[in-house]
Design goal:
Largest sheet: 7 strands, mixed
Strand order of the largest sheet: 1-9-8-7-6-4-5
Number of helices: 21
Strand content: 5-15%
Helix content: 25-40%
Bound molecules: iron/sulfur cluster
Oligomer: single chain
Structural class: alpha/beta
């Protein structure tokens, strides 16, 4: 751990802080000063026009945003008990002047897609003379972009937060706290402060079982931030976290936000039977989703254990249909296997798959676009996150491109006016294949994969394979997704998607007849199309604009909606 500190800054809060001091008597009856601190934790806005902002589906069930800020409530649990903490999520609620005026200290944490708002918030807090502490994955990857903050926590907070607290309590008002990489024992990570969260704002709530992934994918920042030796919490610890969620009244979708849920299979095998028993005892209050590598399909026992514990969805990184490209990106676990068969096997355990695909690798051939479409159709994966390759800060890919002199200036800076994600902002480097060809292929893949007919067709084929025969059909009371069950929701989805109405109704009626146990998930995925349909059109317009720019033509008008 390296701590760089500078003397007290000009903020002068050492004085005002004393106003909140609480005089207590210790065991010997001597008075001592407990320094209180009012902390405003702010979760920055995600960039608009991102694949992950499926707020249309959230609105359908009365929620405001898909995911909740798990990182900040975990850090909140590490702060002294006598500190007063409030949480404002800018994606779900307004941040007011009164919120900022109340605070002694502002803490901000987020990811790359929150960078523009995080940087804006530092300035906003400073305008109101509030010191700011920043942390989280983007700060850890690109600390230089956050140099205006008063305190930087770089790396996993558990290791350095005590030093930050000590510095703050001793009156220091600037500092950089750097955690030694991958050294955190997550079994000592505290229970997240779920009490700070407004559950009804979210479509799902996250828990974290493990950090890190054993694989070596060249483009991945997870292994740079959390290492290649997956560290897991104890079974008791994760069950206590779920119990806390349960006791706070939460019911419904819980996402294991792990980088790779099956990264440490040995430990996971001991957790899953206990998770099943815990669920059974409480009549299945939660349905789980997670992210895992494709080799999950090699392990029938593990798939069965996940089915028994009530998992319903898994995100899998497939990336490319081309074995040579997979080898080049060091994603060897995806080679020498029939990807579509692996996906179908996961379906047979009652879990649907959403998948990641990337366009823009050096070894891609002209035929890649059609091969990607064919694979998505054959595997029958309705929701595919198809992005352009984006060199993330601190990755093997970024280091290689820098060495080859191919990295663009400002590759790690997400500008406010760009307002997008890797779907519109990649490739942030000089490509090997002509960029125009890559963009044209990418556009073609999006057009075909997100056409309403193709999407509905994949839903039908997924439903035919999704074995939900031994699962309970009813969701627990309090699960917001119950609101999707009524015919009203179906009508709302159809009204919102006139161009998808015919194929979606056909699929709905067919699944209702042939596999009613899968119907809820098919309707969920139809609701998600309320975002992905219009989103893919916006991305296609932006790609058209980039192609026209490369062709030296005047940029085309970007279509609305
Ligand atoms: S499998 Fe996923 S988490 Fe693991 S290294 Fe590859 S991209 Fe990263």
């Amino acid at each position: 751990m390296l701590v760089q500190r500078t003397p007290k800054s000009f903020w002068g809060f050492a004085e005002s802080r004393k106003l909140h001091g609480i005089v207590t008597l210790n065991a010997l009856g001597r008075s001592s000063m407990t320094i209180s601190c009012r902390v405003l934790m702010i979760y920055p806005k995600f960039v608009p026009n991102s694949f992950w902002n499926y707020t249309e589906a959230c609105e359908l069930v009365g929620a405001k945003y898909p995911a909740a800020p798990l990182g900040l409530i975990t850090v909140a649990a590490m702060l002294p008990k006598h500190w007063d903490i409030r949480l404002v999520n800018r994606n779900t609620e307004p941040l007011t002047d009164a919120d900022l005026d109340w605070a002694d200290l502002v803490m901000i944490g987020g990811m790359l897609n929150q960078q523009p708002d995080a940087i804006y918030l530092i300035g906003l807090a400073h305008q109101r003379s509030k010191p700011v502490c920043v942390g989280g994955p983007d700060v850890s990857s690109s600390p230089h972009l956050y140099a205006d903050a008063d305190f930087l926590v770089i790396g996993e907070a558990e290791q350095v937060i005590e030093h930050f607290i000590a510095a703050w309590e001793s009156g220091e008002r600037q500092g950089v706290f750097i955690a030694e990489k991958f050294k955190i024992d997550v079994t000592r990570s505290p229970m997240p402060r779920y009490d700070l969260m407004k559950f009804d704002h979210y479509l799902f709530i996250g828990v974290q079982y493990s950090r890190g992934c054993p694989f070596t994918c060249e483009f991945c920042d997870i292994i740079e931030l959390y290492g290649r030796v997956p560290r897991t919490k104890t079974n008791d610890q994760i069950l206590a976290e779920l119990q806390a969620l349960y006791d706070n009244g939460y019911r419904g979708h819980v996402d294991f936000v792990d980088d790779n849920f099956i990264g440490n299979k040995k430990n996971l095998r001991t957790l899953l039977p206990r998770l099943k028993a815990w669920q059974e005892e409480r009549d299945y209050p939660f349905e789980f989703s997670t992210e895992a590598s494709i080799n999950i399909a090699d392990d029938s026992e593990l798939l069965q254990a996940m089915r028994d514990a009530n998992f319903f969805a898994v995100f899998v990184g497939i990336e490319s249909p081309d074995p040579e490209t997979l080898a080049q990106m060091k994603k060897k676990q995806n080679t020498r296997r029939n990807i579509a068969e692996c996906i179908h096997k996961i379906y047979s355990y009652g879990m649907f798959v959403t998948a990641g695909f990337i366009v823009g690798f050096d070894t891609e051939k002209a035929s890649m676009g059609q091969a990607m479409i064919d694979l998505i159709e054959e595997a029958s994966i309705p929701v595919c996150m198809i992005g352009l390759l984006y060199a993330l800060p601190g990755t093997q890919l970024t280091r290689r491109l820098a060495k080859e002199g191919r990295l663009h200036d400002g590759h790690d800076l997400m500008k406010v006016e760009q307002a997008g994600d890797q779907c519109t902002l990649g490739c942030n480097f000089d490509t090997k294949r002509p960029l125009r060809d890559i963009l044209a292929d990418y556009k073609d893949v999006l057009e075909q994969v997100y056409s309403p007919t193709a999407y509905a067709g994949r839903l039908s084929r997924l439903a035919a394979m999704l074995d939900r025969s031994d699962r309970r059909r009813e969701l627990p009371e309090g699960d917001v997704r119950k609101r999707l069950g009524g015919i009203d929701s179906i009508h709302k989805i159809m009204r919102a998607l006139p161009e998808a109405r015919e194929p979606f109704w056909k699929t709905f009626v067919e699944v209702a007849k042939t596999n009613p146990g899968a119907l809820r998930y098919i309707v969920m995925l139809m609701a998600l199309y309320m975002h992905f349909g219009p989103f893919s059109k916006r991305v296609i317009s932006e790609i058209d604009r980039r192609i026209a720019e490369l062709d030296g033509m005047p940029p085309a008008r970007v279509a609305a909606g």
